[in-house]
Every structure is written in structure tokens, then in C-alpha cells.
Amino acid sequence: MKKLLYKEFQLSIHKFYFIIPFLTGALFLIPQWVFLLALMYFFFISIPNIYSSYNSQNDNGFTIMMPVRKRDIVKAKILSVIILELLHIIVGAFYAFLNVTLYKSGNFMLDLNPAFFGIAFIMFAIFNILFFPLYYKTAYNFGIPTILATAAAIVFAAAVELLVIFNAGFANYLEGGSPQMQSLQLVILLAGMIVFALSNFAAYRLSARRFENIDL
To answer: Distance (Å, rounded) from C-alpha 204 to C-alpha 50?
Structure first.
């Protein structure tokens, strides 16, 4: 598995995709902005270009000729995407800390706090649980899976943002400053991380099963 991951990061995935989180993460420094959008650039830029590169290089065809199990190939590719997603979140958290330190004020949309990143984990989970199983039906066509998974993630994020604006009770859960609400926001972060982990495991299991049933 380590060698397959090494192959992904050294041969299949361009180093530029490790720089993108630091570029898009700077969007967290914009005051009064829709900060979930900064994380969505992963769906808009990285995923389409990475999987387009897989096709142009015939990466899946090359990898299955190696003495490895097909499910391990899927695991390595999903793990590489998860690592990039986590990098986006970690870098985003750093810029979010700078935002809160610099501006010392709440946001018109969802505030930058632990609950925000819990929502971000769920957003990535929704994308992954849809994208990977759809992609591995063919292990080639990535356009429709990317569009559907991105659309679902956007709908979820938009629903949360709109509820924060128009529902005071919901906004208090995600942005309240009382000790009880701050504790709840930490619980939302933990819940988001759990959803992210379970969704990725489910996405891997279904994707691996589908990849084993196709003939490249």
C-alpha cells in the first residue's frame, strides 16, 4: 500500500495539487465571505484535472498490470484524494485562525469555528460517497460522477448557509458563543469527522467491488 501511495504522489498526481490548498486557503482571509466555497475549489480544480490525467496516462491500465490487488489500487487512489482533502481542511483551519485573529468579528454566513469544519468534513463525505462508486463503475468516465457529486456537496453547503441566515435557532447551534453552544460546536466537528471516516470506508468498499467487476 505504501508503494502504491508513493506511486500516486510521485507519478500520477502532480505536485501542483499540493500547492492549491495554500492558494485557495487564502480566500479564508476575505472578510464576510462564503468560506465553504474556498474548500469547494478542490471539486472544481483538483478532481477533474487529476482524473483527466489518469485517463490521458492510462493510469488504471498501467497500475493493474502491477502485481497488486485491484482493491488495493482503489484504496490507494481513494486515500490519496482523502489526504488532499485533509490538506485543504488543515490549511483552511490555519487561514481561518488568521481570519478570526485579524478581524475579531462574526461572519454574515457561517462563522469560522469548529462547527464550520464539521460541516466541511460532511461536505467532503457527501462528495466522496457519490463520486468514487460512480467513477469506479467504469474507472474511466469521471465527468458525470464529478458533476453529480459536486452538485450534491453544493446543495448541502448552500442549505447549511441559508439556514444560518434565515433560522436563528439553527444559527445559534452553529455560531452561538455560550459555553454550551461552543461545546456543541466541538461535537459537530467530531460528528463530521466520524461521518467523513465512515463515508470513505463505505465508498471504498463499494468502489473496490465495482472495480473488480470491470475489465479494463
So the answer is: 18
Furthest CA-CA distance within the chain: 57
Phi, psi of 97 (to 5 degrees): -60, -40
Please tell me the pTM assigned to this model: 0.96
Q: Are 123 and 157 in contact (CB under 8 A)?
A: yes
Query: What is the full per-residue pLDDT of the chain (216 aa) written as tens digits?
Result: 788 988 999 989 999 999 999 999 999 999 989 999 999 999 999 999 999 999 999 988 888 888 899 999 999 999 999 999 999 999 999 999 999 999 887 788 899 999 999 999 999 999 999 999 999 999 999 999 999 999 999 999 999 999 999 998 898 999 888 899 999 999 999 999 999 999 999 999 999 999 999 876
Sign for the pseudo-dihedral over CA of 117, 122, 128, 134: negative
Alpha-carbon distance 145 to 147, whole Å?
Answer: 6
Grid cell locating 167: 433560522
